[in-house]
Design a protein that fits this description.
420 residues; alpha/beta; Aspartate Aminotransferase, domain 2; seven-stranded mixed sheet; four-stranded mixed sheet; 12 helices; binds pyridoxal-5'-phosphate
Length: 420
């Protein structure tokens, strides 16, 4: 049974409507085990972070070993082997042209760092370029800068006065891609923006909206032509979700700045990085102290989190990890396929290991009752699924089995019947 809430204020939770929490005692592979003895399939990788599975033995032992050796040290003026290894391995795996690695602690902070790098670059080379171009329906996090470049709505209405102005281009809906490209070209030509920030291939929290790789390539080409920095926010799409290690690979796009977090530690500990091109670093490299990149947080490059990231990066160098990706993508296609012709759903889609579908409903907004109702039905089936309004998506850890996915899709079909 779920337990009554304590003094804790939970994230994205309306306690007046959801006063009870499920207490989890153990995670293993694709499963969460609760105090009341239930085994829950984690069909959304615990907010998209768990990649190889909960408590992966190689990541766990890397954490244990590092925790006993050096578990925290200031990262200004000091460095350590786990961080050096993360940087070295990352630069091998990340898209070409990225030469420097800046550490932080979450997806939101990696975005804040990216925005500050972009503005710092233009400031330090003496050009007044401050505007940021964004894509409609984007989500980049919940800190003030990250909210400013994300979609405006109920989530940030109360904080509107704190958010800075941006230029928004439309999401490239199928058949309307040229409108997006024209809007980007117009903004780049007329507003001399500092940067364009985008989630490559999939807009996650904005509704699992998918667009093709050629669009990403075109958007990068437009930015390049106008000398606008291209920021790839791969916080969600990174670490295999779209079928390749990073989504940009599919478009052969080399971003100027890239943000990675979530699966960076395999989902075991909080850590984030912002990678950038050499000339962005160079614009801050000077004997003049005023040109320093003024950003830090106390736990920057925490050694234990870095050790988890090294273990994760090692796993990604095995053929097996990539084979798992391909097989999850195939299993996911098998699972979603019957829904493509199912009249109860629309917009049935898949990119790599992520599937999504929209349940036809009269009231489909994020805050509509249908979301919590669906969530409750899934909870009763021992499934962790957290629809975005009427959009149901499946983003499992890569150790998920075909049987787990069968259970998930059967529950989705039954939920549609129950709410019909
Ligand atoms: N950027 C994207 C694309 C995300 O999906 C998220 C979180 O879901 C973030 C940034 C923010 O990450 P975090 O929740 O770790 O701050």
């Amino acid at each position: 049974m779920p337990i009554k809430r304590t003094a804790i204020w939970h994230p994205f939770t309306q306690h007046a409507l959801q006063d009870e929490m499920i207490e989890v005692v153990r995670g293993s592979g694709a499963y969460l085990h609760t105090t009341d003895g239930r085994r829950v399939i984690d069909a959304i990788s615990s907010w998209w972070v768990v990649t190889h599975g909960h408590c992966h033995p190689r990541i766990v032992s890397a954490i244990q070993e590092q925790a006993a050796k050096l578990n925290q040290v200031i990262f200004a003026g000091y460095t350590h082997d786990p961080a050096e290894k993360v940087a070295e391995l990352l630069l091998k795996l990340a898209p070409r042209g990225l030469d420097h690695v800046f550490f932080s602690d979450s997806g939101s902070t990696s975005v804040e760092v990216a925005l500050k790098m972009a503005l710092g670059y233009w400031h330090n080379i003496g050009k007044k370029r401050t505007r940021i171009v964004v894509m409609q329906n984007s989500y980049h996090g919940d800190t003030i800068g990250a909210m400013s470049v994300g979609a405006r709505g109920v989530f940030n209405a109360a904080y509107g006065p704190l958010l800075f102005e941006v230029t928004s281009i439309p999401f490239p809906a199928r058949g309307h891609e040229q409108t997006t490209l024209d809007a980007l070209e117009f903004a780049c030509r007329n507003e001399s923006p500092a940067a364009f920030i985008v989630e490559p291939l999939i807009l996650g929290a904005g509704g699992m909206l998918m667009y093709p790789a050629w669009m990403l390539k075109e958007m990068k080409r437009i930015c390049e032509t106008s000398d606008v920095l291209f920021i790839a926010d791969e916080v969600m799409t990174g670490w295999g979700r779209t079928g390749t290690l990073f989504a940009c690979e599919q478009a052969d796009v080399a971003p100027d700045i890239a943000c990675y977090s979530k699966g960076l530690t395999g989902g075991a500990l909080p850590l984030a990085v912002t990678l950038c091109r050499a000339d962005i670093f160079d614009a801050h490299y000077s004997k003049d102290r005023t040109r320093t990149f003024f950003h830090s947080s106390s736990y920057t490059a925490n050694p234990v989190a870095c050790a988890a990231a090294v273990a994760n990066l090692d796993l990604w160098q095995t053929r097996e990890a990539h084979q798992r990706l391909a097989s999850v993508a195939t299993m996911q296609e098998h699972g979603i396929e019957p829904f493509r012709t199912d009249p109860r759903f629309t917009n049935v889609r898949r990119t790599g290991t992520i599937t999504a579908l929209d349940l036809k409903a009269s009231d489909a907004g994020y805050l509509a009752d249908i979301g919590p109702k669906l969530q409750e039905l899934f909870r009763d089936r021992d499934l962790l699924l957290r629809p975005l309004g009427n959009t149901i998506y499946v983003m499992p850890p890569y150790c998920v089995t075909a049987e787990d996915l069968d259970e998930i899709y059967a529950a989705i079909s039954d939920a549609a019947d129950a709410l019909a």
